[in-house]
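Fig. S4 source data, part A: sequence.
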Amino acid sequence: MPAFFAPDGTELAFHVVGAGKPLLCLPGGPMRASSYLGDLGGLSRQRQLILLDLRGTGDSGTPTDPAGYRCDRQVADVEALRHHLGLDRVDVLAHSAAGDLALLHAARHPARIRTLTLVTARARALGIDYTHEHRMEAAALRTAEPWFDSAHEAYRAIWAGTATDAQWEAATPFFYGRWDATAQAHAAGEAAQTNDEAGESYAASGAFDPPATRAALAALSAPVLLLAGELDSGPRPHVAAAAARLLPGAELSVQPGAGHYPWLDDPVHFTRTVGAFLDRPVRPPAAADAGERVDEAAEGLGQA
């Protein structure tokens, strides 16, 4: 299993799937092992997927200090992997809660990002997040589903903070655009892949400084794609659009009929959209030394 060491000495593992130009993939959860990403609907046929197991998940080691699970403190892990891979600039794809990690990494190291793909991603790092109302708005789109009545009460309990394990399981169909055999098999392996203790520390106090992050990302020249699911509740497409407006060079794509895992709901649409974005020519930085200065200027962001 390929591995490298984070600056604090934690040994981190990553998985390589497919061939082609590398795409560094950050899993959500928060703090879920990268295996749930699979081959991203066949995107591995176009790109070599570098799937990072975040610290304390999958095959990666556990940090000595649990405070190291905080999102902003994991930025150094992502940068260490880029350096380990020998890439001057990297294509990054982040799913769900990893959107925050990818945004913080891009803010601290803007000169190191070739492209940034945010898939049904959170943007607390920008001061934007979904709400209970957004969850209910998405649920209202599913009333014709055969499972709706049995799942809706459980879904409401989750966002009220009173859900039991059984209710979490009952509400799972809301997270998928199609509750078919593929989705059910994927959902069955979800819980065992998540480090709940680490997940609780991920967004701890001090992890995010939205004004500073927005200011730093004003220097980001890399293209950014935000891919939202039409049926997803976190984020809703209009929430993803609000995040896109804060990022220079960003564009929004809404996948029809997709939930929180769009590569499962329609692999062809997903891989075509992401692949086309990644294959576009990207203008190199005007001057490498200027890019380095921007990188250095942002280096201290969010390390309190």
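Fig. S4 source data, part B ends here. The radius of gyration is 18 Å.
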